[in-house]
Amino acid sequence: MTDAEQLLWSRLRRKQVLGVPFYRQKPIASFIVDFYSAAASLVIELDGSQHFEAEHQANDKERDQALAAVGLLVLRFDNRQVLQELDEVMQVIFCEVERRIPLNPPFTKGEA
């Protein structure tokens, strides 16, 4: 793992974000995503500097669309953001998980 991946993983593992489990290097379809939460239908990708090149951006867009087609949201951060702005990155992740998984779901018929 890169330094950025190690740092982010230290904040995602062990259900630290609203009790939601995350996995790293998870195979999904024909891809291996950096971080994945099945509960939140969320993928987190960390991008190195090569991802700023046009070819990589086109590939990333196709990948994101393919993952979206199976119901997953992809959040992308560059390594610099994670290394220098970790609290802000975590806030985006926290808010997205919270949005995708209601903390107090309404009761369903038959529940007491």
UniProtKB/TrEMBL annotation:
SUPFAM superfamilies: Restriction endonuclease-like (SSF52980). One of its GO terms (molecular function) is endonuclease activity. InterPro entries: DUF559 (IPR007569), Endonuclease_DUF559_bact (IPR047216), Restrct_endonuc-II-like (IPR011335). Pfam families: DUF559 (PF04480). It comes from the Bacteria. Keywords: Endonuclease, Hydrolase, Nuclease. Gene3D superfamilies: VSR Endonuclease. Residues 1-97 form the DUF559 domain. PANTHER family: BLL0828 PROTEIN. This is Endonuclease domain-containing protein. It comes from Iodobacter ciconiae.
